[in-house]
Every structure is written in C-alpha cells, then in structure tokens.
Request: fold
Amino acid sequence: MSKNICFIDGLEGILKYRGIDINQLVDLPYDAISYLLILGELPGDQELAEYSACLHGAREVNREVLDVIHMCNFNVDSMEALRTIVSFMSQFDPDITDSSPEGNTRKAIRLIARIPTAVAAHYRIVNGNEPVPPDPSLSHGANFLYMIRGSKPSQLEAEVMEKDFILSAEHELNASTFSSRVTASTLSDLYSAIVSGLCALKGPLHGGARAEVMTMIEEIGSQENAEKIILEKIEKKEKIMGFGHRVYKTYDPRGAIFKQLSRELAEAKGDMCWYEIAEKIEETVIRELVEKKGKPIYPNVDFYSGVIYKYMDIPPQLATPIFAIGRVSGWIAHCFEQYEKKRIIRPRAFMLDEC
Ligand code: SDX
Reply:
C-alpha cells in the first residue's frame, strides 16, 4: 500500500519515507533516497556506490533530445518544455516497450538521471548559452547547479540543493503523484506516467507555488512592506503562496528544515534581507490567520524553498522544474507499486466531494 512508501501525520507534522523520518533522511545523499523510494530500502555502501555509478553514468541526453530542447519555443514555460522533452526522451529509451520490473528500473534510472540534464540544458539554451555536459563525479545537487551555472557550486550550496531534492522527493498521494499513479494504473508506460505528474505539478496551487513565493517576496522588497502587503492580501482573501496544506494542520516538517537552510545561506552570504522578509511574512500570517482566526495556515514546503532560490540566484522559472527533479523518485515509487497491483484506479464522482 502507498503508506509503505510514505507516512504523513498532518496533526503532529511528521513525514517518513518507507518508515524513516525525514529529519534522518535529509542528511543522506539524494541517490540513497531515490534508491530507498524506488527499490524499497536504504542501500548499503557497496549497493549505493554501484547505484550512484549507474545513475551518474546515465546523465547525458542524446543529440536528438538536445536538438528538440533547442527547438522548444523560447517563450515556453520551463515545465511545458520539460513535459515535451521527457515525452520525446522516451523514443530513445531501448526499454520503452519493456514493462518488466527490470526494464522499468532501467527506465527509472534514466529518468532520475536525465531530467536534471534536460532542465539545465533548456535553461542554458533559452538564456543564449550552450548546455553544460553533466559531471558524473558530482552529487545530484552539485551536478545540477554546475549544469545551470557552468561552474562548481560551494559545498554549502551543493548540500542545500541535495537536501531540497530530498525534501521534495515524496509526499504520498499529492496531486502530481496521484496523476502519475492513475496513469500507471492503466498499465501505461513509465514515461507517460511521469509526464502526467509533470503536468499536474505545474499548477500554482501545487508545485508552481515556489515561483509565486519568489515573486511575492521580490514585490514586497523589504521587511517594512511585508506586514502591510500581507494584511492587504488577507483582507482581500487572497491565498498567501507557500502557506497552507491539505494534510498538514501544523508546521510542514519540510518547511521547518527549509527555513533553517535558508537562514544558513543568508548568514553565509552576509545578507539577511530575503530571510527577514520571509520571517516577517510568516509572523504576520501566523498572527492573523492561525492565532486570530484559528486557521492552520502554516508555511509549507514551498515557502522557504523559494527564499533559498533567491539566495542561490535560481530564477523563478526553475523553481517548479527543481521540484520535479526531486519528486520524480516518488512518482516512480508509486508507479512501481501500482504496476505490481495491476489494478486500475477508478474513483466515483461522489468521492470528489471529499477531495
Ligand atoms: C504542495 O498535497 C501535497 O502533499 C502537496 C505538496 C507536495 O509535497 O506534493 O505538499 C506540495 O502543493 C504544497 C502547497 C503549495 N501551494 C501553495 O502554497 C498555494 C497556497 N496554498 C493554498 O492554495 C492551499 O493552502 C492549498 C491548496 C495548499 C490547500 O488548500 P485546501 O486544503 O484546499 O484549503 P482550502 O483552499 O479549502 O482553504 C481552507 C481555508 C479557506 O478559508 P475559508 O474559505 O474557510 O474562510 O483556508 C484558507 C482558505 O481561504 N487558506 C488560505 C490559504 N490556504 C488555505 N488562506 C490564505 N492563504 C493560504 N495559503
């Protein structure tokens, strides 16, 4: 059952992947987390070394895929481009018609390895630069930053990116995971299921919130403005991006870790500005919505992650693709579980009233 993959206690603010608390997992390499999610247990040292070698060796995308990335309309949203690129990548996967567990695992490794390369290549090309080939010696997080920047990141930034991918990796039956899982439940192929997840994640009420958080913080611009602008939004009954959750009715445990990471980055950069604006936003929302109105509207996974991207000079258009880079392991875990069940997911209309 999907609870074997992920456990969430929305009242206590607990998140576990395969029974292990997120606070224990966040210091491991992302490779270990994707192994845990798609293969069901944490790897030993030898297993991790072999798996990482396989993953890192599969990062390159072929010439035809790079040609399509070049053809992607420069005005197109990064997630729309990624949806197209992943769909096109499937045509070059030698296992595309192999739906055996072994074939699906090989496809899974290619998807986990190549989605970051595709995101980075598209970003470089739309900004007038040539793609930077992946470096198999780097971690998932360090390699992604290297491919978008063309230079190796600091150890802190590499660690923060790695933790971001881990915190984004899995979250039970959220909208995008449910979309992937429903597609897999028809026994459609893994690439199609992942494209379904990408399409759902794009929405601003789901994965698109991080970019909206970044825009909101930029518009606020100073701690002094924060309270006034947030009060205006609350007055107009606008949703504050990066806050609230369907399941968590307390602080999102991922949000707490992202908050700490954004503070570490702010202190390392000697610039507390964005962090202090975010803290003021949080303070105002908690006071006005939680304390005064009893609404459990706490920072979710997308609030302080948006602050982190500000400090790492990651533009808003990369925020949701970064979420997808982390989440693809969770999508695949759920697809694999559904393939084993060989049973279509077919809810009834009355159930939508509860969703
Ligand atoms: C993700 O499901 C997952 O696990 C998702 C995710 C994952 O890892 O996959 O955690 C990732 O999608 C996080 C959420 C990112 N989205 C945002 O940050 C957008 C802003 N948040 C809201 O849109 C909202 O909180 C949702 C969509 C996240 C959840 O909304 P619900 O549970 O459907 O709540 P609701 O819309 O029914 O609102 C209930 C009340 C309403 O007030 P009343 O009408 O009862 O007076 O709470 C209010 C809402 O207005 N409310 C907010 C609010 N979120 C809910 N008020 C202000 N700001 C907000 N953000």
